[in-house]
Amino acid sequence: MTEAVAGRSLLLSALLRLARNRAAIASAVVLALYVVAGIVGPMVWLHDYRTVYANYVKVPASLTPYPRAEEILPGAAAALRRARLTVENVTVVGDTATITVHAARPIDPRVTRYLDRSDLFADARLVSLADDALSATFAADVARHTFLVGTDANGRDLAARILISIRISLMIAALATGVALVIGVLYGATAGFLGGRIDNLMMRVVDVLYSLPFVFFVILLVVFFGRNVVLMFIAVGAVEWLDMARIVRGQTLSLSRREFVQAAEALGVPPGAILRRHIIPNVSGPVIVFMTLLVPKVILLESFLSFLGLGVQEPLTSLGVLIAEGARNMRNAPWMLIYPSAALTLLLFALNFLGDGLRDAFDPRDR
């Protein structure tokens, strides 16, 4: 007796086809790295994305820690100038700076706080004070800071800002795309399968929603939901489903005339089961491709809303906001545009390649 051969499920077959697509697998790895960077990166990075380094505004990327040797003397002079002290000499041995100063009036030992407030020094202390208190020697640890991709116009570490922006952009894209996917697929498949007057009525509702001014609608969402980013972009996803619904409806109208759907209807299969088992799986290819286009669309939409003051608010940021800031400073700080743009470009390439691979893997005609 011939032994029965175990069959493969449709999902397993699709995953095996996907595994043979090297570009899709590489893109999936890149996206996984983005997710890990967005979740873990801000918590383990050298700098906090909210910390402002007033002494390091728009400094370029460097593997060498700041401050440079030639910056220590001007930095000490600027910090102690507020205490009306004149810096005579600064000597640096290792990571300890010895600062000699004099003044026209007695020096208060508490002026070390001016050095501690500077980003260049830490743990400042009085070493010696002259008998007339008009000259003194201070010692302070040189605070070393490494900015691998430079700082922004406010003196914040750009790498930390990129990591938190990846988290925010991916979160916004996932929420909005997920909501648009669920609503659009169910709505479009139902309208296309039922057809007739119900289809006509449901599509007229879509046309009415298309006619609403988007910015006005978003302002209403902000009024109702406040500045909560999560709730607002869930609501934005509830608007972005319109294109998804039209695409799915068109595919469903084509599929509803196919033999396997008519056979299921003749056998008495309920409409809900036909939608779930025959219609929706067969529209997965176009839906996945559209999802890969919707994710960057949502990211760009978020940057537009943030530019209007309706999206992500400080101290949070996103890739769109960073690129907009970099464009304004590209003449004197090109790294503010280059690195966020490279991060967004790599993300979009990965999404497109993965979307193509998923489309090919889940295409029913390739089964």
UniProtKB/TrEMBL annotation:
UniProt-listed CDD domains: TM_PBP2
Keyword flag Mitochondrion: no
Residue intervals passing through the bilayer: 23-46, 170-194, 214-239, 279-299, 336-355
Compartment annotation: Cell inner membrane; Cell membrane
Membrane topology term: Multi-pass membrane protein
Domain of life assignment: Bacteria
UniProt entry keywords in alphabetical sequence: Cell inner membrane, Cell membrane, Membrane, Peptide transport, Protein transport, Transmembrane, Transmembrane helix, Transport
Family matches, as InterPro entries: BP-dependent_transpt_permease, MetI-like, MetI-like_sf, OppC_N
One BP term from GO: protein transport
Pfam families: BPD_transp_1 (PF00528), OppC_N (PF12911)
Start and end residues of each ABC transmembrane type-1 domain: 166-355
Annotated signal sequence range: none
A Gene Ontology term for the protein's cellular component: plasma membrane
Protein family: Belongs to the binding-protein-dependent transport system permease family. OppBC subfamily.
Protein name: Oligopeptide transport system permease protein OppC
Originating species: Acuticoccus mangrovi
Lineage of source species: Bacteria, Pseudomonadati, Pseudomonadota, Alphaproteobacteria, Hyphomicrobiales
